Amino acid sequence: MRAVFALAATLLTVFVSAHVSIQPPTAVGNKNAVTAVRVPHAYKGHNTTNVTVLIPKGILSVKPQQMAGWQVKLQSKLNTTTNASVVEAVTWYGGNLPDELYQDFGLQVRVGDLPVGTVLYFPVVQETTNGTLPWTSVPDASGKIPNAGYPAAKLTIVNATTTAPSATNASSNQANTPAAAAKSSSSERHAVASGCLVAAFASLALAVSGP
Asked: Which of 33, 44, 101, 126 is the most buried (most CB within 10 A)?
């Protein structure tokens, strides 16, 4: 049975050769940043139709980029300490991204006052015409990524002098108009993707709380 699972994992790796990532992968604490979630592929020969990004603690505010051909919605929760609404997930949906093309899904964020070296994980659930790709695995208490084949995208906090260029240049051909968004409901999501999101939220909470 283990051999079967190993073979399946090997075959899947053939089709999934690159990971979803944050571009640029660094930002400065206590500042605004323009970044993007880069989706490099889908399953071979299939299209991406939905992309959901979970926003980690440490990101104080989020404004998603309006993408031609896509709609966007925000999932928010109430911060009982500040009594303010906090975005915990952004979903672009209704689009059609072929496997042979990549896309940067832009985010304008406010980064919290975090120490240099802090790593923020952004689990991403990518829905395709051939199923769901759950880029949601974050390090456990020992620092090991349970599902290394599907790591969550990450953003590292650096000094102002070492920060990477803005993602604006990488996505200059895309519209920069802030997107109108509405709260999402669980009924609008596919069952598999919903399960991935629940697991991702749980993993992200563990990563933030630490051992």
From this structure: 126
The whole-angstrom separation of Cα 147 and Cα 139 is 9
β-pairing verdict for 153-158 and 119-122: antiparallel
Largest CA distance in the chain: 52
What is the tens place of the pLDDT at every residue in 77-116?
988 877 888 999 999 999 999 999 999 999 999 999 999 9
Continuous H helices in 51-169: none
- Secondary structure (3-state) at 23: strand
Q: Are strands 26-28 and 153-158 parallel, antiparallel or unpaired?
A: parallel
pLDDT at 208: 44
Categorize the per-residue pLDDT at 201 as very low, low, confident or very high, splitting at 50, 70 and 90. Answer: low
Measured in Å, how far apart are the chain's first and last C-alpha atoms?
32
Among 66, 52, 51, 63, smallest CA distance to 179 is for 66
CATH of domain 18-209: 2.60.40.2230
- Other Cβ atoms closer than 10 A to 46: 16
What distance in Å separates the CA atoms of residue 55 and residue 124, rounded to the nearest whole number? 9
Provide the residue ranges of all domains of the chain, joining segments of one domain with +: 18-209
Cβ neighbours of 133 (radius 10 Å): 25
Exposed, middle or buried by CB within 10 Å (0-12, 13-18, 19+), for 115? exposed
